[in-house]
């Protein structure tokens, strides 16, 4: 058994087809450690809606930069499902 649900789109060519918007803080350990992977997101994720690294922000992006996070999420949601 894998951690990927059977209902997710196939990733046979290593490009996942589901929509995603990635947001992280430049002072967050996992974001810093994953810099090289994050740089590959546009290539590896067929439906990526962008990777956003917020300046002067740690792990708790929602609390630290709520206006920026909300704006990015609203933009993403408007693209995914226009109102």
Describe, in plain words, how this protein is organized in 3D:
With 83 residues, this protein is of the alpha+beta class. The protein has one domain. Helices cover 40% and strands 16% of the residues. It contains 5 helices and 2 strands. It has helices spanning 29-33, 35-39, 41-44, 61-64, 66-80; strands at residues 20-25, 48-54. It has a two-stranded parallel sheet. The chain is flat.
Q: Briefly, what is this?
A:
With 83 residues, this protein is an alpha+beta fold.
Essential attributes:
single chain; 83 residues; alpha+beta; two-stranded parallel sheet; 5 helices; 2 strands; flat
Topology:
Elements: E1 20-25, H1 29-33, H2 35-39, H3 41-44, E2 48-54, H4 61-64, H5 66-80
Parallel strand pairs: 1-2
Proportion of strand residues? 15-25%
Indicate the percent of residues in helices: 25-40%
Unreliable segments (pLDDT under 50, ≥5 consecutive)? none
Order of helices and strands: EHHHEHH
Largest sheet: 2 strands, parallel
- What is the CA–CA distance across the termini? 38 Å
On the 0 to 100 scale, the average pLDDT is 78
What would the principal axes of the Cα set say about the shape? flat
**Helical region count?**
5
Count all strands and give the number.
2
- Secondary-structure-derived class: alpha+beta
| Major beta sheet, strand line-up | 1-2
How large is the radius of gyration? 14 Å
Overall number of structural domains? 1
Quaternary structure state of the chains depicted: single chain
């Amino acid at each position: 058994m894998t951690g990927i649900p059977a209902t997710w789109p196939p990733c046979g060519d290593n490009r996942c087809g589901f929509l995603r918007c990635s947001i992280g803080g430049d002072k967050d350990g996992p974001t810093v450690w994953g810099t090289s992977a994050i740089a590959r997101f546009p290539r590896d994720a067929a439906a990526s809606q962008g990777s956003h690294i917020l300046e002067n922000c740690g792990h708790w992006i929602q609390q630290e930069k709520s206006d920026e996070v909300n704006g990015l999420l609203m933009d993403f949601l408007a693209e995914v499902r226009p109102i």
